[in-house]
Amino acid sequence: MADSEKANNRTLAGKCLCGAVQYAAADEFVYALNCRCSNCRRATGSAFKPFAGIERNKLRITKGEDNLMIFGDERGCDTRCNVCGAFLYSVVRDGAFVHVAMGTLVDGPTIRPTGHIFVGSKARWFTITDDLPQYEEHVVVAGVAGG
User: What is the pTM of this model?
Assistant: First the structure.
């Protein structure tokens, strides 16, 4: 079996800081980016949000569904643990995709971020020091819109 086939059969575990919410996601992320928009910075309390995009039906809550705190609706929202407040994922693209906060993954995904988006509104106090491409706003990655 090829490595790419093995990766497609992998299921990754993820969880919040306190462990009250846990999830499983197929290691089939379509894209991964570092978002530097002001909304993602405020949502994470960080200089940027590293996220990996996957079809919504490829992520499932395995523990603590009653501990989810959702800001928004089924077509677009941010999801946190209501016990510890950890930011877990965003539902985007009219509810079709989920942007998993990569820092909540327990297992390492096959994909890595391939660029920085919304650098036009990045935190002035943070300098990007890697060689990944930088985009002022949204970017289309392999035919799929990121962000």
Answer: 0.85
Q: What is the pLDDT of residues 23-72, one digit of tens each?
A: 999 999 999 999 999 988 998 899 999 999 999 999 999 999 999 999 99
Helix (H) or strand (E) holding 32: strand 31-35
Domain coordinates in residue numbering, the chain? 3-145
Q: What is the DSSP string of 61-122?
A: EEE-GGGEEEEEETTEEEEEETTT--EEEEEETTTTEEEEEGGGBSSPPS-----EE-GGG-
Say which amino acid occupies 95. Answer: G
- Looking at the domain that runs over 3-145, which CATH code has it been given? 3.90.1590.10
Asked if 71 contacts 81 with a C-beta cutoff of 8 angstroms, the reply is no
